Amino acid sequence: MINKKNLWFLTLFSLVLVLSIYYVTMPSEVFKVGNQEDKGIGEEETSISESTLIAALKVEDDSSILEKINSLKEKLTDSEATVEEKNSAFEELKTINKNSSIEETLEAKIKESCSCENFVKIDGDNIRVVLDSDDSSTTMANNIMRLVQNEFDEKMYISVKFN
Fold it and tell me: Average per-residue pLDDT in the chain?
């Protein structure tokens, strides 16, 4: 009779054996360093068009949302949590998902209308917009505020910051 430990060992050993055979039978051309230049494949240039501040804001926001979602999921799966706590956690998860989709939509619309990278964060009835634009005119800020407000039925408090 095979127990679980033996089964796992055989599975992992088989995987290592198959990968070893694959590695040994690969052509040696794959491992040559100068192989790309021999075939005419040069190095590609990579450029980053987003502002460092906009990228940092997006990463920070994504990590904070991920932390919040994980804590809410833990609360939902906690056997000691009350029904009210689970309901409020579920409602908060729905709000986070809804806000995230609205933020993405607004970012796309602002990018289309202003041709610049941007970051949008919704926190209750406050909306923060950060733009990566050299043109920091009042007219542009007002247009963005109108564009954002058109997405909502109730009055929102919108702030626009130029980077």
Answer: 83
